[in-house]
Amino acid sequence: MLKLAVFDFDSTLMDGETIDFFAQELGIGEEVAKITEEAMSGRLDFFESLQQRVGLLKGLDFSVVQKISQNLPYMNGAKETIAELKNRGIKVVCFSGGFRTATGHAKDILGYDADFSNVLHSKDGKLTGLVGGDMMFSHSKGDMLARLQKLLGVSEEETLVCGDGANDLSMFAHAGTRVAFCAREILEKEANVVIKTKDLTKILEKI
Questions:
Q1: Quick one: which H or E segment has residue 166?
Q2: 10 is catalytic
Q3: Concatenated DSSP letters of 124-156
Q4: Which CATH number fits domain 4-206: 1.10.1610.10, 3.40.50.2000, 3.10.129.10, 3.40.50.1000?
Q5: Relative to the CA of 49, which of 21, 109, 131, 136 has its CA 20 to 30 Å away?
Q6: pTM reported for the whole predicted model
Q7: Catalytic residue among 8, 115, 164, 168
Q8: Catalytic residue among 10, 20, 164, 168
């Protein structure tokens, strides 16, 4: 029986990549999206790609970051799926290589229990191009999941994980139910549940 469900945020609970929305404000959407795609497909080190992309956001007003973070398009079925999992007594957590401004705001809307993500550094109301936090490396999600399982007394068999990109691979190694959601090929290969349509409620049919 499942006790813990961990979801990625960008392109999983949210329809898109938060950092790409920020980049569009600076007119560098295409450039940043290209780096994001390379990282999510596993062709680029996640830590390096994150530093590179956040560096390009230097100078963006933090108020703009907050506004975008609070108006993101959530994935079809996200709220309903989380509500049903919680109804079944499952703890629901969000792990994101993205940013607390987005995951912290979405937590109250989508209803998950906790979020672990990264923090964009700002000074004098503008982004400095620096970033820090819980999910900086390609191994971060797996590392955090193993610690969370120990803390909650939950086994791998009692854990569901759901994501779309290469930086979700590390948490796949610690879960019995591995959902690839509209995912890159690198992640699909390691999944035992594959969902090809943008509707998170499809997960409920598989568990």
A1: none
A2: yes
A3: TTEEEEEEEES--STTHHHHHHHHHHHHHT--S
A4: 3.40.50.1000
A5: 109
A6: 0.95
A7: 8
A8: 10
